[in-house]
């Protein structure tokens, strides 16, 4: 899948460049494409420097939280909910703790760290699966919730914005929180409909209703604020949440007699190992996207969509954020490259860049997650997992665009 996508970028770019040369007489297009390849290779290294620090930092703090028992506590708190949503998983099964840890890593925006944990959780669920090739209901729910990109603190998005020179990297905190809530809710409801889960169960309602009421009240509060006030509040809450979590992990670790420094270093080493493997993928995708943009093919496609949106009488500013949305279901590295490229082309705090960052933070690499998670345990029949996951993705994209108009429009 990624082979075809990557090759497709270069083939489309080549066709576009040849057309501009042979028909438009633009012989300089090839020089621009070659220059873009080297520029994107350099940008990949610049991004990786900050990515090394970010992943190392957050996996270090996550290791403290794990040793302090925060993850186990979360597993106990969420256990009654999971037992009803995943009735085939016995109480106290290791899969529940791994699922919780995976959601914690996703919630912190550590998608690269969440993947190995998620694979362990999927293997644990496979031990309970009576079929070796068909996905169980529990596996489908776990995968769709992963694909819905439940992100409470998108530190990777903050990192990319900081690397591109944003004055306030956390500006998109609230938009991502609202958009990812929409995608997760749609993902949960679609799976519940297909699996006939009893969401009206008193225990399930005891979890969902307070959450829905809090989110509704929060949105009602936000509705009375101006765009400037919304942006300021998003920045404040983003920074407070970020530092508050760090302080919580460290203080609870100290209270639990955890050697916080040694634990941080242990987790940081894992973060370094995860980060160092990402550079080849980042170089590959950024260079492919750079060639696509330099060839004029990407602009041509966006212009076609923009004319259609104009014909419908709608605002067109979101169109430049669509490349991130279109490739995100297939490849996280490609979407990351599109996001960075949009930031560079339009400006890191422009509306398209803010919308692209929100889309990136509230959607997931659906086909990649399906291939990796199900492939790791030999699942060949996904049943309704693909449809539910794509529906959650679509909800995330639409919500991200609407929320950005609300906050930054």
Topology:
Elements: H1 2-22, H2 29-67, H3 70-85, H4 94-107, H5 111-126, H6 137-147, H7 155-163, H8 173-195, H9 202-223, H10 227-255, H11 260-276, H12 279-294, H13 297-311, H14 322-327, H15 332-346, H16 351-362, H17 366-376, H18 385-408
Helix pairs in contact: 1-12, 2-7, 2-10, 2-11, 2-12, 3-4, 4-5, 5-17, 6-8, 6-17, 6-18, 8-16, 8-18, 12-15, 15-16, 16-18
Q: What series of H and E elements makes up the topology? A: HHHHHHHHHHHHHHHHHH
Number of strands: 0
The largest sheet is:
none
Mean pLDDT: 80
Strand content: under 5%
Overall tally of structural domains: 1
Give the low-pLDDT segments: none
Cα shape: globular
| Count of DSSP H/I helices | 18
What does this structure look like?
With 409 residues, the protein is mainly alpha-helical. The chain has one domain. Helix content is 77%, strand content 0%. The protein has helices at 2-22, 29-67, 70-85, 94-107, 111-126, 137-147, 155-163, 173-195, 202-223, 227-255, 260-276, 279-294, 297-311, 322-327, 332-346, 351-362, 366-376, 385-408. Helix 8 runs antiparallel to helix 18 (385-408), helix 12 packs across helix 15 (332-346) and helix 15 packs antiparallel against helix 16. The longest helix has 39 residues, at 29-67. The chain is globular. The chain starts with a helix and ends with a helix.
Brief write-up:
This protein is mainly alpha-helical. Helix content is 77%, strand content 0%.
């Amino acid at each position: 899948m990624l082979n075809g996508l990557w090759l497709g970028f270069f083939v489309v770019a080549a066709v576009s460049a040849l057309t501009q040369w042979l028909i438009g007489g633009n012989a300089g297009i090839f020089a621009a494409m070659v220059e873009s390849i080297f520029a994107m290779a350099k940008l990949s290294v610049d991004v990786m420097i900050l990515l090394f620090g970010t992943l190392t930092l957050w996996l270090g703090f996550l290791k403290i939280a794990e040793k302090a028992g925060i993850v186990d506590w979360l597993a106990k708190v969420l256990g009654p909910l999971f037992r009803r949503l995943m009735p085939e998983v016995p109480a106290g099964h290791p899969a529940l703790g791994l699922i919780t840890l995976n959601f914690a890593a996703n919630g912190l925006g550590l998608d690269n760290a969440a993947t190995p944990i998620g694979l362990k959780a999927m293997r644990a669920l496979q031990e309970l699966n009576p079929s070796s090739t068909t996905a169980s209901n529990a596996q489908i729910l776990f995968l769709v919730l992963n694909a819905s990109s439940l992100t409470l603190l998108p530190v990777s998005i903050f990192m990319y914005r900081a690397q591109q020179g944003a004055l306030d990297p956390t500006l998109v905190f609230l938009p991502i929180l609202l958009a990812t809530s929409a995608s997760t809710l749609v993902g949960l409801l679609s799976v519940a409909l297909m699996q006939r889960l009893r969401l009206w169960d008193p225990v399930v309602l005891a979890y969902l209703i307070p959450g829905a009421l809090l989110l509704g009240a929060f949105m009602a509060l936000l509705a009375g604020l101006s765009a400037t006030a919304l942006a300021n509040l998003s920045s404040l809450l983003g920074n407070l949440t970020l530092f508050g979590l760090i302080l919580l992990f460290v203080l609870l670790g100290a209270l639990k007699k955890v050697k916080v420094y040694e634990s941080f270093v242990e987790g940081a080493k894992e973060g370094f190992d995860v980060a160092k493997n990402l550079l080849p993928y980042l170089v590959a995708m950024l260079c492919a996207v750079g060639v696509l943009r330099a060839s004029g093919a990407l602009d041509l496609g966006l212009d076609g969509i923009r004319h259609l949106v104009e014909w419908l009488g709608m605002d067109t500013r979101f169109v430049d954020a669509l490349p991130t949305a279109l490739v995100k279901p297939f490849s996280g590295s490609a979407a990351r490259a599109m996001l960075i490229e949009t930031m560079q082309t339009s400006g890191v705090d422009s509306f398209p860049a803010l919308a692209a960052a929100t889309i990136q933070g509230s959607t997931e690499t659906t086909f990649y997650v399906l291939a990796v998670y199900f492939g790791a345990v030999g699942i060949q029949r996904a049943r309704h997992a693909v449809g539910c996951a794509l529906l959650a993705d679509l909800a995330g994209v639409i919500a991200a665009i609407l929320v950005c108009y609300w906050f930054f429009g």
